[in-house]
Amino acid sequence: MARTNPNRKSTIYDIAKATGSSISAVSMVLNGTWARYRIKEETANRILASAEQLGYNVNMKARGLRLSRSGLAGMILPHYRNRFFAGLVENFEDYARSRGLCPIVVSTQRDPAVELSVTETLISQQVELLFIAGVRNPTPLNDRCASAGIPCINVDLPGPAAPSVVSDNRGGARALTDVLMDKMTARGASADELLFLGGVVDEYATDMRIAGYRDAFAARGITPAADAVDCFGYDASSARRALARRYESLGRLPAGLLMNSITAFEGLVQFASSLPRDAWQSSVVGCFDWDPFAAHLPFEVTMMRQDVRKIIAEAFALADAQDTAAHPLVIVPTGFGPMSGEDDRTVEPSVA
To answer: Whole-angstrom Cα distance, residue 162 to residue 141?
Structure first.
C-alpha cells in the first residue's frame, strides 16, 4: 500500500478509506481510546498498520503500547480509614468511569513490600494507568511502571521519578496556625504555646506542614518551644499517649493543639472523652484534615480541608499529557471553605 503523492500529507480520511473503517473509528484508534468504545483489537491493529504505511504523523510506539491494555485504571493507597483517602478513591472512580475505564483500588497499609507486590500485580493485569497515593517512597513503583510503559502519577506524597499532585501542605498549615493563634490570643492565652502533634519525620507532607507552622510563628516574631513539635505517627493510640503525657505534666490540656491528620485527631477525641467537661473547653484545637462529624463534638475545632476532587482532576490531566520525560509537581490549594464541586452548606471551617 503506497502513497500516490509523496508530497501530500495523509489524513484520517485516507486511513478510513484504506481500511474500510469509519472516520470515528480511525480517530478513536489514533487517540488511543479504541478499547473504551469496544472497537476490536484486530481492527485497531489494521488501522495503526495503515497509518504507519501511509506515513500518518502519529506516535506509533505510544499507540502500540495502548493496544494491549485492558480498560482498567489502578490506584493504590494506604487505607480507607479517613475521609481524605476515601474522598480520593471516590473521585478517582468517578473520573475513571467517565473515561470508560474500570477502576481497581487496593489498600496497602503503608507496607513497602505490599505496595510493590500490588503494583506488580496491577501491571500484570495491564492497567492503562496507575495512581500511587500516600506512598512515602514511590520511586520503586514508578520505575516498575516506567519499565512497563504505563503512565503513573504520585498523589498526596510526591516522588522524583513520576509526575506528582499534592496538597499545599505548607500554605495550609500556615493558614491554620494563624487562625489557631488568633483564637488563643482572643482567649488570653499565649500564642507560642500552640503545639504541633502527629505525622512522620522526614515525610514530605509532615515536613511541609511543620514548615508552615513555623512560618506562622516567624511572621509574629515568636518561636515555638523546643518540644512543641511531636511527630509520633498518625495513629490514634500514639496521639492518646502523647496527650496523656502533656496532660500529666501540665495538669490540663495544652492551650493550643494542631493535630496533623484526622486519625491523630481521633486520639485527641478519645483522650478528651475521659476528662471532665470543663477540660474540653481549655484548649484551642485544629486539625489538618476534615470530617463533618466534628460538628457534633462538645468542643470547637478548626479544620483545614484538602481538595480531593481537584487533586484527582489534576492527576488525570497529567496522565493524559503522557509526557514521560517531565515529572512536574502540581500543588493544589487547601482551604477552610467548600472545595471544588461541593455544597457549601455541608462545610464549616470552625464548628462548636
So the answer is: 10
Cα gap 288→268, rounded to integer Å? 13
Cell 495503515 belongs to residue: 50
190 torsion bin: left (phi>0), alpha (psi -120 to 50), beta (else) = beta
Residue 175 lies in a domain: yes
Q: How far apart are the first and last CA of the chain?
A: 75
Which of 9-13, 172-176, 201-205, 271-275 is the least confident region?
9-13
d(CA 316, CA 152): 10
Residue at a domain's end among 303, 318, 347? 303
- Provide φ and ψ at 304, rounded to 5°: -95, 125
Q: Are strands 284-287 and 256-259 parallel, antiparallel or unpaired?
A: parallel
Identify the weakest region by mean pLDDT among 1-5, 11-15, 18-22.
Answer: 1-5
CA distances from residue 235 to 180, 231, 259, 268 in whole angstroms, order as listed: 23, 11, 11, 11
- Angstrom distance (rounded) from CA 199 to CA 264: 8
Would you say residue 206 lies in a domain? yes
**How many other C-beta atoms lie within 10 A of the C-beta of residue 265?**
30
* CB-based contact 184:245 (threshold 8 Å): no
Domain that holds residue 152: 72-162
Question: Hey, what amino acid is at 316?
Answer: F
3-state secondary structure 236-300: HHHHHHHHHHHHHHHCCCCCEEEECCHHHHHHHHHHHCCCCHHHHCCCEEEECCCCHHHHHCCCC
Give pLDDT tens digits for 131-180. 999 999 999 999 999 988 899 999 999 999 999 999 999 999 999 999 99
d(CA 133, CA 130): 10
